[in-house]
Amino acid sequence: MSAPSTALGKGDHFSLFGLPRKLWIEMPTLEKKFLELSWKLHPDKFVNASPADQELSLKGSSELNDAYRVLRDPVARIEYLLELEGMRKEGEHKQQAPPELLEEVFELNESLDELRETKASGGDLGSLKHRLESAEKNFQQKLGEVDAQLQETAQQWDAAIDANASDADRKGIMVRLNELLNRRSYIRNLVTNVEKELQ
Fold it and tell me: Residue 162 is part of which domain span?
């Protein structure tokens, strides 16, 4: 039996699955390749192998699962691609309010502070909760808009790859993807904070 290291250890998540560095992925193809590789690397197949090969099998399975999890998720896939291209550091989320949302964010934070104070004093939360639910709905809508823009920009990336676009053109698209990811992360955190306070 060949050592499990042959399937992994080279390249990135995309190349592991035999995919180009594009953002649209056919999910059935990804899943099929994942199952094939999972079977080849499954620790059960290496029960009688050397301890070194057993270790490689476990490591390979773990890497494969991580790669599959990232590529399956459209947002994680964009973040990963930007990391590969040197446009984003792992875990980077710039928490800066988009300028056009500053007023709404300020009002939201005031309402959240007011809700916390009212909770602490045992006051009536009815109208405050209604205001926050409305704000949450508004930011959920903005999140949907950002997701649509991300999808559109991802399509531009794939078209640029297909057209063998210049580095400058590709970099411009990556800058836009990065801005959208930061915006998405910021709005997502706002929504999460409101949801937490409304519980």
Answer: 99-198
